[in-house]
Amino acid sequence: MRLIQVFALACFVSAGAAWATAPVQVQPGATAAARDGASAQRKVARSEAEVKRLKRDVQRRESDSKRAGERLQEQDKTIAELQKQLQELQSGQSGGQH
User: Buried b vs exposed e over 4-27: b needs ≥16 C-beta within 10 Å?
Assistant: First the structure.
């Protein structure tokens, strides 16, 4: 009786191993389609990553541009104030020389 159980178990294991290693019948285009689908997904993922990178780059550049504009406005104010002071000094010197 024990021999029959061992034999049945051996048959079951060998059948399972044969079934597990049996080649899968796949439509010829199915593998290519799966490969193309995976390739397309990778391309989409790369494109999405590139879009995110470009958006961050644009935001950084816009921020840099805004800061540069603010600095220019401050410099313009300083220049206007210095020009006013210079004109006052020049008009004071001109009035004193007459």
Answer: eeeeeeeeeeeeeeeeeeeeeeee
The token duo for 8 is 């049945």
Compute the distance between CA of residue 27 and CA of residue 55 in angstroms, rounded to an integer.
42
Q: Token pair 């990178």 is at which residue?
A: 53
Number of C-alpha atoms within 13 angstroms, CB side, residue 3? Answer: 0
Three-state SS for 33-71 is HHHHHHHHHHHHHHHHHHHHHHHHHHHHHHHHHHHHHHH
Give whole-number Cα distances, 97 to 12, 68, 78, in Å.
120, 43, 29
Distance (Å, rounded) from C-alpha 88 to C-alpha 34? 81
Q: Which residue has the higher pLDDT, 60 or 33?
A: 60
How far is it, in rounded angstroms, from Cα 91 to Cα 98? 11
Confidence tier at 51 by pLDDT (50, 70, 90): very high
